[in-house]
């Protein structure tokens, strides 16, 4: 297991969690994690093996790089149009309660509760079997990727801009259409929960927002139990904070099942494409009546993923959406 980070100006930083001193070093001759992943696939070796072969060079202060906003999203595609942002919802034990509260109007089970219950009953299939498919959403392409420390812009037309602390998997499709998992990061799956609450069918609209990832990429297997913390800062004060749980012990689906139901579609196995898939959450400040304002800072942290992910909230300028005929 190791952590990799991407320097904006070029360069890759490697840190081993078992290193008692927490030292981080630049990877020799490495410009980007994306290119390292491409080279590892081409050579038929693991990413960890390639990093070991290249060797580690200059020691760097990773925390200082993060503080100076010099770290990027760990993996980007050179062409943002070939980078998919997608995710699954209602995958965590307890996640349905928040969603159900948004849409429940009677004692009948909402669609959210129904699909959550389907996951509880069939989201963890036995080896060799396929489990029930989860809720799925499209979030956009690489143009919506925000680096750690940079502002998350909420559109001028948005009714809300709220955090969703999640784990995201990064995947690169090889020349033969084979899916290769690069690693996992923290993610802020930024959404508009007021729009979503109006009508469940507005979920698709609520998800078409930017998202932030990183700053460290975990290369290796995830623990079964993951603990994290989500916080919103307003000025010098903590406006809201709450812990969250993830990992398969706390989920109604296995990661393997969630991956299967995304990559079973041919369109998502096109050679050279990069996928960032978010695996859901059970903790939202919106569920506690919080509405973030411009300038508030979201912080998502977990010792499993190294440095915290921090992003301030900003309001994007209004755009001219008038269509001009040619």
Set out the fold topology.
Elements lengths: L1 E6 L4 E4 L8 E4 L5 H11 L3 H8 L1 E5 L1 H6 L3 E2 L10 E7 L5 H9 L7 H12 L12 E7 L3 E2 L5 E3 L10 E9 L5 E10 L4 H6 L4 H5 L3 E3 L3 E3 L6 E9 L2 E10 L8 H9 L10 E5 L18 E5 L7 E7 L11
Parallel strand pairs: 6-16, 8-12, 9-18
Antiparallel strand pairs: 1-2, 1-5, 1-13, 2-3, 3-4, 6-7, 10-11, 10-16, 11-12, 14-15, 14-17, 17-18
Helix pairs in contact: 1-2, 4-5
How would you describe this structure to a colleague?
The protein is α+β, with helices and mostly antiparallel strands and 326 residues long. Helices cover 20% and strands 31% of the residues. The chain is built from 8 helices and 18 strands. The strands form 3 sheets. The chain has a 7-stranded mixed beta sheet with strand order 7-6-16-10-11-12-8. Strand 14 and strand 15 form a beta hairpin. Helix 1 packs across helix 2. The longest helix has 12 residues. The termini are far apart.
Radius of gyration: 19 Å
Number of strands: 18
Shape: globular
Mean pLDDT over the residues:
93
Structural class: alpha+beta
Largest sheet: 7 strands, mixed
| Number of helical elements | 8
Helix content: 10-25%
H/E series, N to C?
A: EEEHHEHEEHHEEEEEHHEEEEHEEE
The strand order across the widest sheet is 7-6-16-10-11-12-8
Separation, N- and C-terminal Cα atoms: 54 Å
**Could you tell me the strand content as a percent range?**
25-35%
Low-confidence stretches: none
């Amino acid at each position: 297991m190791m952590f990799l980070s991407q320097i904006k100006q070029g360069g890759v930083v490697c840190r081993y969690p078992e290193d008692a001193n927490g030292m981080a070093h630049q990877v020799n001759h490495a410009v980007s994690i994306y290119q390292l992943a491409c080279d590892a696939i081409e050579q038929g070796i693991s990413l960890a093996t390639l990093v070991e072969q290249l060797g580690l060079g200059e020691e760097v202060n990773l925390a200082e790089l993060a503080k100076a906003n010099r770290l990027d999203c760990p993996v980007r595609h050179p062409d943002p149009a070939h980078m998919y942002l997608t995710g699954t919802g209602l995958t965590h034990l307890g996640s349905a309660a928040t969603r159900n509260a948004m849409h429940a109007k009677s004692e009948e089970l909402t669609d959210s509760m129904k699909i959550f219950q389907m996951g509880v009953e069939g989201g963890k299939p036995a080896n060799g079997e396929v489990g029930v498919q989860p809720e799925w959403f499209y979030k956009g392409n690489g143009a919506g990727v925000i680096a750690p420390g940079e502002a998350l812009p909420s559109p001028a037309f948005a009714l809300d801009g709220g955090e969703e602390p999640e784990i995201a998997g990064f995947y690169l499709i090889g020349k033969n259409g084979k899916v290769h998992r690069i690693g996992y990061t923290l993610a802020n799956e930024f959404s508009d929960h007021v729009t979503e609450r109006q009508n469940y069918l507005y979920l698709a609209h609520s998800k078409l927002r930017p998202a932030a990832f990183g700053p460290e990429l975990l290369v290796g297997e995830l623990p079964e139990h993951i603990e994290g913390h989500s916080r919103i800062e307003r000025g010098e004060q903590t406006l809201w904070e709450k812990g969250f749980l993830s990992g398969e012990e706390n989920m109604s689906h296995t990661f393997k099942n969630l991956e299967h139901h995304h990559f079973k579609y041919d369109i998502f196995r096109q050679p050279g494409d990069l996928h960032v898939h978010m695996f859901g959450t059970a903790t939202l400040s919106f569920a506690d009546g919080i509405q973030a304002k411009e300038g508030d800072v979201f912080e998502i942290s977990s010792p499993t993923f190294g440095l915290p992910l921090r992003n301030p909230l900003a309001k994007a300028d209004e755009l001219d959406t008038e269509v001009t005929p040619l």
